[in-house]
Write a structure and sequence with these properties.
Blueprint lengths: L9 H13 L3 E7 L5 E7 L1 H31 L2 E3 L5 E3 L3
Antiparallel strand pairs: 1-2, 3-4
């Protein structure tokens, strides 16, 4: 789904799924895979859809703020901050 850009190992995935389920944002059901193995299938609940919508709105607001700040920084000069917090100007 993420075209291999986002990877999550099992040690992180299952605790996250359990937390989402505990919060009522997803629901799980038992099923069988095509190979006949027992699996759990997850779906978003109504509360999960509301929470996802809230998180998407928050992300869009954050991304817009970063874009706005980035746009202002590029029009003034090409400055960067070093690892020690010093501003290093590379523009005029």
């Amino acid at each position: 789904m993420s075209s291999e850009v986002l990877t999550v190992n099992q040690g992180s995935l299952y605790p996250a799924l359990y937390r989402l389920e505990d919060r009522g944002w997803i629901a799980a059901r038992a099923a069988l895979s095509d190979e006949g193995r027992r699996i759990r299938v997850y779906r978003l609940t109504a509360a999960g859809r509301r929470r996802l919508s809230h998180e998407i709105d928050s992300w869009r607001l954050f991304a817009a703020a970063i874009t706005q700040v980035g746009g202002h920084a590029m029009t003034r000069s090409c400055s960067t901050v070093s690892a020690h917090g010093a501003v290093v100007s590379t523009g005029s």
